[in-house]
Amino acid sequence: MLKAIQILGCSSGFISQRLKKSHSGNGFSLISSKGSDTSTSLFLHPFWTPKTLTFRLIRMFSTQSESNSNAPASSSSFSSVAVHSAGNVHKIKFCQWCGGPAKHEIPDGEEKIRAICTLCGKIAYQNPKMVVGCLIEHEKKILLCKRNIEPSYGLWTLPAGYLEIGESAAEGAVRETWEEAGAEVEVVSPFAQLDIPLIGQTYIIFLAKLKKPHFSPGPESSECCLFELDNIPFDSLAFSSIFVTLNLYIEDVKSGKIKFHYGTINKRLGTGPSDIRAFTLDYHLQA
User: Fold this and answer.
1) In CATH terms, is domain 89-124 a member of 1.10.8.60?
2) CA distance readout (Å), 182 to 132, 140, 216, 228
3) Backbone dihedral angles phi then psi of residue 7, each to the nearest 5 degrees
4) Start and end of every Nudix hydrolase domain (predicted)?
């Protein structure tokens, strides 16, 4: 079932939604205010409160029961800001093949400015990087690492890093987990893919389990720890992708069904890397 959920970060109150305290007392649910046979709710961690964020839940289903709705969707309801760029092309001063000076212009038949060698004519294309990692559940706790390097030094994250040439996404996630947490893991299934167009990154996070109940911080981590879901340090997380991933996982656990999630994190222009909540989330797929 396809869903689109846009989560909008700002400092005001809730928009067109009513706030309902969850039965567990540990969070809130956003319930659609429109009358319908099908309701949608999204559990939000207590840190996602009206004082810090605004949430807008957009209901959009591809199920047959709603596909015949006569009410047209407002174009503004589904609008989101996505920044598409060719990267910081002006940083490329020289050709990577022959060393010749680069010029910056739009090549014939294209729409974006590229770095073009003035000697050999080759075009330098900048492509997104893939970040892979593991969400490791052990005895109803999640393994997190405290970063020992910049960016986000001293903040918590899932073990993850850049995929390398010659390895699959799952292999890269297992390797990164070993390097950052000293843990041998077995991948269970993919859990989330989160695209971040503004910074040219795609995150693929796998559910995994420990082969052995042993872990220890690697050179890039100062500490590794298993956290109960209610004790995850949401106020000290390193990246927006991890913030989203952990909230999605908590919601799945509370619903009793672990799903695969795909969405786009649209980070706000002009915000620093430490402001991990300055984003909108276009939630495209849940399966």
Assistant:
1) no
2) 16, 20, 5, 20
3) -110, 120
4) 127-250
Residue 222: its H or E element: strand 221-228
Query: 26 in the Ramachandran plot: left (φ > 0), alpha (ψ -120 to 50) or beta?
Result: alpha
Q: Sheet of 102-105: strands edge to edge?
A: 102-105, 114-117, 123-124
CA-to-CA dists, residue 247 to 4, 24, 193, 254, angstroms: 16, 16, 14, 11
- Give the integer Cα–Cα distance in Å for 126 and 170: 24
Kindly report the length of the chain.
Answer: 287
DSSP letter for 69, please: -
- 286 Cβ partners below 8 Å, 6+ apart? 1, 2, 3, 259, 260, 261, 262
pLDDT in tens, the chain (287 residues): 333 333 333 322 222 232 333 333 333 333 222 333 333 334 344 333 322 333 333 222 222 222 233 333 333 333 333 333 456 888 999 999 999 999 999 999 999 999 999 999 999 999 999 999 999 999 999 999 999 999 999 999 999 999 999 999 999 999 999 999 999 999 999 999 999 999 999 999 999 999 999 999 999 999 999 999 999 999 999 999 999 999 999 999 999 999 999 999 998 877 666 688 888 999 888 88
Q: What is the pTM of this model?
A: 0.70
